């Protein structure tokens, strides 16, 4: 390229590289032969990520997500779940050795997942609940869903009921009125180990 073309190219290039500077300022920079090129990037508008919303409680009810089909309501089907739960508790309590401290086992059980545990209602303000024994299939904030040996699905409220959980000779009592939490919330809850006779 000729000198004039080269000069025009450089001037045009500098105008693009330094759009905020006037022609006089660009010429002044050229006379000092010190050129600092700046890059002006276009501001990108950040696209807000849409959070994936789960189903509402109404939608879950309509879809019957938590309902157990009548043909699946059989005690024998869930016995392997109970065996898995027993192994889970043994691992959680470091083997449930005879010299294990009862308070330690009790505190672990209170925070453990109870799906698969065999529980018995030992006390209740409603006499018809007393004696119900079965495997916990579902735990909600206010109720347990229990399958009995007679293949009956019972919905037992936690409020005003006392439950007993037995594993390898160790019996733990759960006061349902103090236990009205979801399973996921119980792991972070601090329970007082001293029992209470209040229902």
UniProtKB/TrEMBL annotation:
GO terms for biological process, alphabetical: rRNA processing; tRNA 5'-leader removal
Any one GO MF term held by the record is: ribonuclease P RNA binding
Q: What Gene3D superfamilies does this protein's entry cite?
A: Ribonuclease P/MRP, subunit p29
**Can you quote a single GO CC term?**
ribonuclease P complex
Organism domain of life: Eukaryota
Q: Does the keyword tRNA processing apply?
A: yes
On assembly, the entry states: Component of nuclear RNase P and RNase MRP ribonucleoproteins. RNase P consists of a catalytic RNA moiety and 10 different protein chains; POP1, POP4, POP5, POP7, RPP14, RPP21, RPP25, RPP30, RPP38 and RPP40. Within the RNase P complex, POP1, POP7 and RPP25 form the 'finger' subcomplex, POP5, RPP14, RPP40 and homodimeric RPP30 form the 'palm' subcomplex, and RPP21, POP4 and RPP38 form the 'wrist' subcomplex. All subunits of the RNase P complex interact with the catalytic RNA. Several subunits of RNase P are also part of the RNase MRP complex.
Q: Which family does it belong to?
A: Belongs to the eukaryotic/archaeal RNase P protein component 1 family.
| Name of the protein in its database record | Ribonuclease P protein subunit p29
The scientific name of the source species is Cepphus grylle (Black guillemot)
Lineage of the organism: Eukaryota, Metazoa, Chordata, Craniata, Vertebrata
This chain is encoded by the gene named: Pop4
């Amino acid at each position: 390229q000729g000198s004039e073309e080269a000069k025009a190219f450089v001037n045009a290039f500098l105008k693009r590289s330094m759009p905020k500077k006037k022609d006089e300022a660009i010429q002044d920079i050229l006379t000092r032969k010190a050129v600092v090129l700046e890059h002006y990037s276009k501001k990108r508008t950040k696209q807000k990520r849409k959070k994936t919303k789960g189903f509402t409680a109404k939608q879950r009810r309509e879809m019957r997500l938590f309902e157990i089909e009548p043909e699946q309501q059989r005690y024998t089907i869930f016995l392997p779940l109970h065996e898995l739960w027993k192994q889970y508790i043994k691992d959680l309590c470091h083997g449930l050795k005879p010299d294990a401290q009862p308070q330690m086992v009790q505190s672990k059980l209170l925070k453990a997942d109870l799906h698969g545990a065999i529980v018995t209602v030992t006390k209740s303000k409603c006499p018809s609940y007393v004696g119900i024994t079965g495997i916990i299939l579902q735990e909600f904030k206010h109720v347990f869903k229990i399958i009995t040996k007679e293949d009956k699905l019972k919905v037992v409220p936690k409020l005003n009921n006392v439950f007993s959980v037995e594993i390898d000779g160790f019996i733990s009592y759960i006061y349902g009125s103090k236990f009205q939490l979801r399973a996921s919330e119980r792991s972070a809850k601090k329970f007082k180990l001293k029992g209470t006779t209040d229902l």
